[in-house]
Amino acid sequence: MVYYKICLHLINLLIHTQMIPTFEEQTAPLTDYELHTLLPIMIQGFKKKIGVENCVTNPEICKSLKQKGFKISEPRVRKLVFYIRHNNLVPKLIASSKGYWIATNKKEIESWLSSVNAKIDALEETKRYAEQMLKDWNNTNNTSSYIQQKIEL
Fold first, then answer.
1. What's the CA gap between 148 and 151, in Å, rounded?
2. DSSP of 5-25, one letter per residue?
3. pTM of the model as a whole
4. Are 72 and 64 in contact (CB under 8 A)?
5. First vs last Cα of the chain: how many Å apart?
6. How far is CA 44 from CA 1, 39, 53, 68, 140, in A?
């Protein structure tokens, strides 16, 4: 068990040390408390959530853990879920606006993947807009050529 905890801690440090600027608190590496106390509880909880009819939402997870005296926030639940998925600690753990659950068929995973790809596409569009804003920063009329291009479409 000690070896397992050491491995989890090292993986966390090596892979997840990069924080997202302006989201440092939410994206900080998992703490020892999160890794050794919350992670095992969440893994056990998710293993019971087989099928969409048994899904659990992020607010429900937080409320349940807080009622039991644990310290947790919604962004940290997402960070723990990322860690669980990245390390395949709960295979087939997916989510939608309904909550988190273990997929029971291929179609659920395909639908979840489609949703993930749509989010990536939306972020790419936002990234292109931000890059264009930087290019247009010194534009005297303060109107982005990217926005003008989109309006003309």
1. 5
2. HHHHHHHHHHHS-PPPTT-HH
3. 0.75
4. no
5. 59
6. 16, 9, 18, 15, 58
HSE-CB of 28 using CA atoms within 13 angstroms? 9
In this structure, the number of other CB atoms found within 10 A of the CB of residue 54 comes to: 13
In the 8-state DSSP scheme, what is residue 34?
A: I
Contact 115, 96 (CB under 8 A): yes
Span 3-54, pLDDT tens digits: 555 555 445 544 445 666 766 666 789 999 999 999 999 999 999 999 999 9
Tell me the C-alpha distance between 52 and 110, whole Å. 14
Tokens (6 digits) for 84: 């669980």
Whether 46 and 100 have beta carbons less than 8 Å apart is answered as yes
